[in-house]
Write a structure and sequence with these properties.
The protein has 478 residues and is an alpha/beta fold. The chain has 16 helices and 18 strands. Helix 6 runs antiparallel to helix 7.
Length: 478
């Protein structure tokens, strides 16, 4: 019975454990089914919620001021972020006087290659898309303007009008344009023809007014928003982002992948702020900041070399100079102007150590100002004239201070050597007739006098022969 009982117990135990395991399995399956149901419900709720809210979003990029390397990096980075985040539209809002040709072309290449429609929008009211901004607007898949805005004046900066030329009486034909360009240099004709061909190609790509685009390049004409819409230069005029999205709804655009119909009604608009790297690039590539960094770098290193051990001027100067050189790498720098600036600074420094009564200093100031004026003279990228004037005046003031100190020093009598003893007054150490000893400048000297000298009598040095001083008795009235 004991064995049977033991066997029975051994037989029943597995049955008990199987039931227990089956129960746990059923419980786990029930829990899994509950989780699946919850997941399905969440997905359904998400889908239902997605139907109630806008199906897409637009990313707004803002270009304010001159178009430079920082603006190009900002736009390219923004288009990449828009693609990665699943945005369905990019609004490129502009208010610019123009900028660098290289930066403009980088932006245009990024816009044309974008798989997401890009809307060029000149806004808010009172803004403009001049020069490089006009090209970017023509390259955008949709060109829009806010009321009270303008675009145009797309002539390259180096193309200057001939003396006596005028747009009056030319009408809409190009005969006057051909005469104007024919009188220009070969380089100028190449530049204007290249710019004209470029903007006409952008106009034909999106079906816009190519004839007016050519006039904007050759004659630097401009248009208001209403005129641009009437002439087919832009696609629409919208008063604000909401009106823009409402008018864009149903609009068809031509992307590199093919035509696409926009669905924008009720679309959310999010503004992309520049990253810290782009903001830093915007600061140091400002022509005035780059110019100031160059001066701080040069003067800081000079001050460190003339006052070794201070460390701070050298560190600040080295960092500022490197930042300035990086900025000059991406800015349209005239290296002849940079060389003139450096030469001018060298001349002004040389005036402090090798005084030339202002010749080196004046030449240095002239070279410095001339170099500053021609250092950067591209469209939208110029150094402020007041900044150049203030820097030149400061340098001139420091130079005048050095020259004035040298002039005062040169007028002082020498206090060392034979010249320093000449005219000095001493006291006889003993009575003598002919040769004797006197105290002068705290030293004992052998003196020679033509008249007898009494001990303690004041004498004046009239000359020196070796280690002997020629003296004369100092008169009482003196």
């Amino acid at each position: 019975m004991a064995r049977q009982t033991k066997g029975t117990m051994q037989t029943r135990a597995p049955l008990h454990m199987d039931r227990f395991g089956t129960g746990r399995l059923r419980c786990g399956m029930s829990l899994f089914l509950v989780l699946i149901c919850c997941l399905v419900a969440a997905v359904s709720a998400q889908a239902a919620l997605a139907q109630d809210r806008p199906a897409s979003a637009a990313l707004r990029l803002e270009i304010r001021g001159a178009i430079g390397p920082a603006a190009a990096e900002y736009v390219k980075e923004g288009l990449t972020i828009a693609e990665q985040s699943g945005a369905h539209l990019v609004i490129l809002e502009m208010d610019t006087p123009g900028g660098l040709d290289t930066a403009m072309r980088q932006i245009i290449k990024a816009v044309l290659a974008s798989p997401i429609p890009v809307v060029g929008y000149v806004a808010p009211a009172g803004s403009r898309a001049a020069s490089a901004g006009t090209y970017i607007l023509y390259a955008s898949h949709v060109a829009a303007m806010a009321p009270a805005t303008n675009l145009g004046a797309a002539t390259p900066l180096r193309i200057t009008p001939l003396p006596g030329t005028s747009d009056e009486g030319k009408g809409d034909d190009n005969s006057g344009d051909e005469q104007e360009i024919a009188g220009s240099s070969v380089l100028e004709r190449k530049m204007v023809n290249d710019a004209e061909a470029y903007i006409k190609g952008l106009a034909k790509r999106h079906g816009r007014n190519a004839e007016w685009a050519a006039r904007a390049v050759r004659q630097a004409v401009s248009l208001s928003a209403a005129e641009a819409l009437a002439l087919g230069v832009v696609d629409l005029v919208a008063d604000g982002p909401e009106d823009l999205l409402a008018q864009l709804d149903g609009h068809e655009v031509a992307l590199s992948s093919g035509p696409q119909k926009l669905v924008t009604r009720g679309m959310l608009v999010e503004t992309l702020a520049p990253s810290w790297r782009i903001r830093l690039l915007m600061v140091i590539t400002d022509p005035n900041i780059a110019y100031f960094l160059l001066l701080v770098g040069i003067y800081g290193l000079i001050f460190e070399l003339t006052h070794p051990g201070l460390v701070l001027p050298g560190v600040a100067g080295a960092v500022s100079l490197l930042l300035a050189l990086y900025a000059f790498q991406v800015l349209p720098v005239n290296y002849a102007g940079l060389a003139l600036m450096l030469l001018g600074i060298m001349f002004m420094i040389a005036e402090a150590f090798v005084p030339s009564f202002g010749a080196l200093g004046v030449g240095g100031i002239v070279a410095f100002v001339s170099g500053s004026l021609i250092l950067m003279n591209d469209e939208g990228v110029r150094i402020s004239r007041p900044l150049i004037a203030a820097t030149a005046l400061t340098s001139a003031a420091v130079l005048m201070l050095f020259v004035g100190r040298f002039y005062k020093t040169s007028r002082r009598p020498l206090v060392s050597g034979a010249e320093g003893l000449l005219g000095s007054v001493g006291e006889a150490m003993e009575s003598f007739d002919g040769k004797g000893r006197i105290w002068i400048h705290g030293e004992s000297w052998q003196a020679l006098s033509r008249t007898p000298v009494a001990k303690g009598q004041q004498v004046r040095v009239t000359g020196q022969e070796g280690l002997t001083l020629n003296v004369e008795i100092l008169k009482e009235e003196e």
